[in-house]
Amino acid sequence: MQFGKASRFAVLAAVLLGCTAAAAEPVGTRQRLPWGDDPPAGPALARAAAISAVGRQLFFDTSLSASGTMSCATCHDPSNHFAPSNSLAVQLGGAKRNKPGTRATPSLTYAATTPFFTEHYYESEDEGDESLDQGPTGGRTWDGRVNRVRDQAAIPLLAPNEMANESEAALVARVAKAAYAPEMRRLFGDALFSDVHRALLRIGEALEAYQQTPAEFSSYTSKYDFVLRGQAKLTPQETRGLAAFNDPARGNCAHCHRSQLSPSGTLPLFTDAGFIALGVPRNRDIPANADPRYYDLGACGPQRRDLAGRPEFCGLFKAPSLRNVATRRSFYHNGVFHSLEDAVAFYATRDTNPERWYPKGPDGKVRKFDDLPDEYQRNVDFEPPFNRRAGDTPALSPQDVADIVAFLQTLTDGYQVGSQLATTGTKLPAVSDAAVR
Description:
Layout lengths: L1 H16 L1 H6 L16 H20 L11 H4 L16 E2 L5 E2 L48 H10 L9 H9 L4 H8 L7 H16 L2 H4 L5 H6 L7 H11 L28 E2 L40 E2 L21 H10 L48 H11 L7 E2 L2 E2 L16
Antiparallel strand pairs: 1-2, 3-4, 5-6
């Protein structure tokens, strides 16, 4: 139990700091604390629940934006698994809700266990092979530039093309006027809003607590979860799709979007949180891309700055979870595709039929990887199914593409088993291979 572990560390610290007094105390005379070896869980859990409840109110509060009409939930719609409900490549924000973003808005689901960003990630024993360097992994946002929800939440709250608060002080002033401000003072102190920095930390803490709520953000209630539990079966087409998804010579999707139970029996997140350059086409519907000098280079900038001098990171974006992907209406970091079929077909034919995806230059030649400057195109991934040339047979047939799409549709939460809604749960005993065939 975590509380017991924490209390043991506290006792150890007390012993180390007060060993003289402890040594002088006769054996058997030390009084036991009223709750025994563990502190009471009730008050701690009640406080955590209260902070999460405040975070939920913050998340849905439109008064925290300069326009007065935009909240976190505007772009991260809970009715669509905390992703946009529209098909816009980028969302509109700002004081008048007319300023476009530069990247597609990701879903916030299944992100609670995302590791902190590191250039060299080694899995734990529970995850897989702890001796293998997985390369750059983790962090929040498409480029991994922050590590915690509380830091990520500040980005849209202050961005001029999102919620557009004029300053940190302006944001805190808005929160101080909210109906839940008295509850925040109760939780964090009466003087909370007199210190802008401290108030920002607590706002971020509350938003973080809310986004770690399993029932809303990681319910594990898709059909595939129940297949892994042995409570549902895939259709023949879904089974073929899973096989193509996992096959290293065909889809090879599981290379980044793992589909199997972990060695410790936890359900898959369908992402390894690693970084990859896929060379997706430039999206000319993004206003920023009207400038031919502008490139979104992902991990090396322009929004992330600490890796700006590292060309090996240019063009790399973090692999998102594929959970609930079938309900999205724009795909990849720039929202260039608007159907799941196209998103999968791009994998199959990027290199065999590049004319399908990329424009032609003045010389009539197809301009592959047109959203990356020439000097960074060497970073583009060429592992299967991308290990082919123009005119080759794609690794995935049209039927394979359709089958994979059918399988991806089994990853949508809210699947109903019989007459009851699927229940939650993240860790299971080992499941036999037969359960996923």
